[in-house]
Design brief:
The protein is of the alpha/beta class. It contains 16 helices and 20 strands.
Length: 434
């Protein structure tokens, strides 16, 4: 079948998800092309030309977790929804292709997206298996039902199938980055994403992977094979490990680093998903020897009380140990913070900033003000003022009621004066009348 994969990401990031899905379709023998919104936007002319020349049987649109802005400048979870709707409308006008939605952004509010885009079908979860199965059933003229992770909208009712977990990750396809104009990504100095696992044993209440507490790991040999493949098809040595927690479990991270050293890979790699666990001097030395040039530490908070509220699985002492050893490692490093979770106060924020300020070596600080509250039942157990979400487009963010508007404004003013700080302000649920 002719398959068009549309990467609906509009910010400069590597198209990890769409590349793996495109690779899965290629592996099954389908003819695959991509439309990359990073370079083409939602231009109906360019997309229309590709639809007319390629004549796809299926158009799969990968919706990322992207951020748009409301009129006040605050971020919203639905991102550039109007552009995505324009893409879908262009496909409907210019093609007879069967449209299917998926991607990390689709996973959270699948029904909302199907209704908004006025399409019937989508896939949640791990599409490396379910998408080829969808294509196989469609090509044979079989009913499109019973596919793991499928979401079907018929009339005003939604029918869903439980998604299967991929257990043999060494058997999945390579990411088809060769379809994504690698030279243009390289010009922007964007590292190429490689996944080394699925799942996460941590249970942070705001995280999408917290529903899967089992690690499913690629072998270190497969990871190295994948890196070699990505280097070959992209012409770049820059790699980003895109896992939710690269160094969890620590034994797996060490195994990958040792294999990279053994294979003498010429790479410049990084990850923004390190957790402050297992950061011994030995581990830092191993990271550097394997080609790691930047460690993004997802500390989120340094307040003992907030670490407990967020259920992060580590202590303030672990954060300090990690920062101490990174300071002496010779690698650049940064930290990410999440401010506004249940129980957050200006006192707990000060505890966090005091730890950050103690390390002037930190190259970058990413601050998210407002927590993505997709697990609102858990939020409601902590903050009794929360009701269940009505949907994606009514804004799913949460900010602790202990922080008033003046507190937030003062905090933003303070952070804006600091060096190397990037602030993302997410509109709270209270701001939208929830």
């Amino acid at each position: 079948m002719k398959v068009l994969i549309i990467s609906a990401g509009f910010i400069p990031m590597t198209p990890v998800g769409p590349a793996y899905i495109a690779g899965a379709a290629l592996k099954e023998g389908h003819d695959v092309k991509v439309f990359d919104c990073l370079f083409n936007g939602s231009d109906p002319g360019r997309l229309g030309y590709l639809l007319s020349s390629f004549e796809p049987d299926v158009a799969g649109i990968s919706i990322p977790i992207t951020l748009g802005q409301d009129e006040g400048g605050a971020t919203k979870m639905d991102g550039p929804k109007a552009k995505i709707k324009q893409i879908v409308d262009t496909i409907k006008k210019k093609s007879n292709a069967r449209i299917i939605a998926g991607g990390a952004g689709f996973n959270f509010f699948s029904e909302d997206w199907l209704i908004y885009l006025e399409i019937e079908y989508g896939l949640r979860g791990e599409g490396e298996v379910s998408f080829p199965l969808f294509l196989s059933k469609l090509s044979r003229g079989e009913p499109i039902s019973g596919i793991p992770g499928s979401v079907i909208l018929r009339g005003d009712r939604t029918f869903t199938e439980t998604g299967d977990r991929i257990m043999d990750l060494d058997g999945v396809s390579m990411p088809a980055y060769e379809l994504f104009e690698p030279a243009r990504y390289n010009e922007l100095d964007i590292p190429w994403g490689v996944s080394t696992k699925k799942g996460c044993s941590l249970d942070c209440f705001f995280c999408s992977d917290s529903q899967d507490h089992r690690y499913r790991l690629k072998s270190s040999s497969r990871v190295v094979e994948e890196i070699k493949y990505v280097k070959r098809v992209t012409g770049s040595r820059r790699i980003n490990f895109s896992d939710n927690s690269f160094n969890c479990p620590i034994t797996h991270a060490k195994s990958i680093c040792k294999k990279m050293i053994q294979e003498n890979l010429d790479v410049d790699w990084r990850s923004g998903t390190f957790k402050p666990l297992g950061f011994s001097r030995e581990f830092c030395d191993l990271l550097r020897a394997s080609g790691c040039s930047f460690v993004g530490l997802a500390m989120e908070t340094a307040s003992p009380r907030m670490l407990s509220n967020l259920n992060r699985g580590y202590r303030t002492e672990d954060i300090v140990t990690a920062l101490d050893n990174l300071k002496g490692s010779g690698m650049d490093f940064g930290v990410s913070l999440v401010i506004g979770a249940p129980g957050e106060t200006m006192t707990s924020i000060r505890e966090t900033l005091d730890v950050v300020d103690a390390y002037p070596e930190i190259k970058a600080v990413w601050v998210n003000i407002g927590v993505f509250g997709w697990r609102r039942r858990i939020l409601a157990n902590v903050d009794k003022g929360i009701r269940e979400p009505a949907g994606l487009f009514e804004n799913p963010y949460y900010i602790s009621p202990e922080l008033d508007g003046e507190d937030i404004e003062d905090l933003i003013d303070d952070l804006s004066l600091r060096r190397n700080v990037l602030i993302q302000v997410n509109r709270s649920m209270a701001d939208s009348g929830e």
